[in-house]
Amino acid sequence: MPRPSVEAERREQILRAACEVISEKGYKALRVTDVARHAKLSTGSVHYYFETKRDLVHAAFEWNFSRSLERRKSILDRHPNARDRLHAFVDSYLPRDDETAAAWRVWAETWVEALHDPDLRKLNERIYGEWRGIIAEIIRLGQAEGLITPGDPVLLANVLVSMIDGLAIQALVGSKHMTIGRMRSVCDHLLETMSAEPVQAAIG
């Protein structure tokens, strides 16, 4: 049996490969042999960690979300105030580079499959709850700093998340009316409407 550290590395290797295949071919066309080839492993090695294709795909969807948050941790630490963090956080979700676009395509496959899979609906609910919670907390902190307009942070987070999702899907399918540049402009417009002057400046 592989050592724990090797198992963890191998498992991540497989999940990364699964997300690559899902992004390229979609869930329906995914085969375990494709994942094994991308991971440079045998099919038996993949089945050692994931008994069925369903187990593999569910784990890959969750890994895709976790990886997405990990890539953005530095963003939250890099900016001095919540308003700048919110702008940078949203900007990082524009599907303008290969890695982000691939992650969005996996998300789109998650949503489609969740229409027919109760377990994926639960996964989507939990994951989206975490993402909305992160956005709402940034907004809440920005309001406390006087940099984001007053209002229900959860409601504002839902507006922002829903807008990003809809725009990203249009951009991913190559809409002439919603390019990456136009998506950025729309996001910037909403964020500007959510911005407020610092309390000190408003008082002065």
TrEMBL record:
InterPro entries: BetI_C, Homeodomain-like_sf, HTH-type_TetR-like_transc_reg, HTH_TetR, Tet_transcr_reg_TetR-rel_C_sf. Residues 31-50 bind DNA. Residues 8-68 form the HTH tetR-type domain. The keyword Transcription regulation applies. SUPFAM superfamilies: Homeodomain-like (SSF46689), Tetracyclin repressor-like, C-terminal domain (SSF48498). GO terms for molecular function: DNA-binding transcription factor activity; transcription cis-regulatory region binding. It comes from the Bacteria. Pfam families: TetR_C_6, TetR_N. Keywords: DNA-binding, Repressor, Transcription, Transcription regulation. Gene3D superfamilies: Tetracycline Repressor, domain 2. This is DNA-binding transcriptional regulator, AcrR family. It comes from Thermomonospora echinospora. The lineage of its organism: Bacteria, Bacillati, Actinomycetota, Actinomycetes, Streptosporangiales.
